[in-house]
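Final report, closing paragraph on structural work. Over the funding period we assembled a curated collection of sequence-structure pairs, and we close with a single example.
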Amino acid sequence: MLKKITNLLTATIILAASTFGFSAYAAPIVVKFSHVVAENTPKGQAALKFKEIAEKKLPGKVEVQVFPNSQLFGDGKEMEALLLNDVQIIAPSLSKFDRYTKKIQVFDLPFIFKDGNAALAFENSKEGKALLTSMKGKGLIGLDYWSNGMRHFSANKDFKLPKDIKGLKFRIQASDVYEEIMKSVGASGQKMAFAEVYQALESGVVDGQENSFSNTYSQKYHEVQKTILETNHGVLDYMVVVNEKWWDGLPADIKKGLSEAMHEATILNNQIAKQKNDDARAAILASSAANPKHAKIVKLTDAELAEWKKAMEPVYKRFEADIGVDLIKAAASHSNKK
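Its predicted structure, as stored:
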């Protein structure tokens, strides 16, 4: 009799679980989100917002684990980890995808975007959206772009013009375009993981780097550099990507909830990106005023900026065939709009 009651109770629980759309015994799907920057950056804040919203939308169904500051994988290993499904979501800078599609190199072309708004407009265009799915079949699906402002050069010496950095070594991301950019101004680019940059600058392994104000300040590069030149020569945005096989295998409701959470996290990221960079710029200026050993920010005149643009013009010809003339024109068109 007791056995019958127990079996009946168990069946009732299972039926109730089925009726209300959950399993009494199913463990939540663990979603590991790994990134390489600090939590107080736009990407760091957006990743935490994604976790908050995803777990709220899918209570008990997903558990999002966020690993900032290269805690789990550095930027030299995170792509491999994603393809092996050791992590499920990463948000690398756009430079990291050129081995999967050469068209993504359009984002690295020097001075193609006049500011972050122009870059965002291209990302939201038909051509920009198409790049999110351009790596399907290679294990990657892009969910969205996250903004992080414009890039600026810094070095351990005073400089204003391309000739001033001739012969210097600059840390660059694993980007063939950026390697060519450094050659165009007579410097050399050294590809290096993000987590290694501060020590390399401090020890003199490299003379300079290029990054957004947000990353420069959060990683304290300004403390081991002399000058930050406000060049706005490139955009430092990210693509949030997932493991294709893992994503395609998710139940429809989970995929929908995660997509909605990602959309809300993207809105937050793009709202705070400019503010975070403006705040970081102000903090670097304050730091320089308080400590003359810290980097000062130098603005360029129109004539000086024109020299940088002219020096880097040959880079376009070098990558035009791989990227495609039409895509380059589509990207550049957003900088011409008022």
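The longest helix spans residues 252-290. The radius of gyration is 23 Å. We thank the funder for supporting this effort.
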